[in-house]
Amino acid sequence: MKISIVIPAYNEESSLPATIKTVLAQDYPDFEVIVVDNASTDRTGEVAKGFGARVKLVREDRKGLLWAREAGRKAASGDIIANIDADCLPERDWLSKGASYLNDKNVSAVSGPYDYYDAGFFFRYISLFTEQTIYWLISRIIQLPFVRSGAMLIGGNNFIRASALEKAGGYDTSITFYGEDTDTAKRAAKYGRVIFSNHLVMKTSARRFKAEGIIRLELKYAKHFFKAIFS
Q1: Is the pLDDT of residue 29 over 70?
Q2: Separation of alpha carbons 206 and 23, rounded Å
Q3: Is 108 helix (H, G, I), strand (E, B) or coil?
Q4: How many helices (H) and strands (E) does the chain have?
Q5: How far apart, in Å, are the Cα atoms of 111 and each of 7, 120, 144, 160, 180?
Q6: CB count, 10 Å around CB of 129?
Q7: Is the CB of residue 13 less than 8 Å from the CB of residue 19?
Q8: In 3D, which of 69, 19, 98, 57 has the Cα closest to residue 175?
């Protein structure tokens, strides 16, 4: 299966090079890399172009994460869409691990936890433990036959069948950021099981928590998760 890695980027000239380098170093045999420049005003586009033909650059001037993801999806030629953010650092076998779950025809998507590599020791490992236990459990519960209210996806660490996204009508571009992963998980869950794997770990930056505060941001995420699940 060919995998299309989609990287939305808004003013990410500083973090994007490291992300692209780790993506291009993947050990999976068949993949493409798509960077979506989401109305950046810095050198994001030029940075992506600097990697030559190995990276496909798409410009999306409508601001919003889902506008960027949708532009990337439409430009993709893969059987699987792999979503990461412009500050993620996937391990070399990330694609191989993700693709292995989708060998099961009954699985429409797979996701895993974040490892906030540049956070303090306490926050880094408590958040990782929380995602590996609570997120995993929630995803299983809300997919039970008598519940079926959605699933859990981490927005910058997931693999989704392109066919499932197409059947779902793509991404909901009315969502600018918060709740986008939960909405996408609900869409994918209509066409197969969504797995939350503790082994599919993605290193990412804790910069958003540092900027907004841990408690404030966690409350935002929780609010929009429940809003998306019960809408």
Answers
A1: yes
A2: 19
A3: strand
A4: 10, 10
A5: 16, 24, 18, 9, 14
A6: 12
A7: no
A8: 69
Q: What domains appear along the chain, each with residue ranges and CATH number? A: 3-229 (3.90.550.10)
Q: How far is CA 127 from the centre of its chain?
A: 17
CB 89 within 8 A of CB 21: no
Q: Are 178 and 220 in contact (CB under 8 A)?
A: yes
- In this structure, what token pair is assigned to residue 96? 């191989």
Q: What is the pLDDT of residue 230?
A: 66
Strands (E), 129-225: 157-161, 193-196, 202-204
Please say whether the beta carbons of 182 and 111 come within 8 A. Answer: no
pTM of the predicted protein model: 0.91
The one-letter amino acid at 105: K
Q: Tell me which residue of 226, 209, 185, 225 sits closest to 87, measured CA to CA.
A: 209
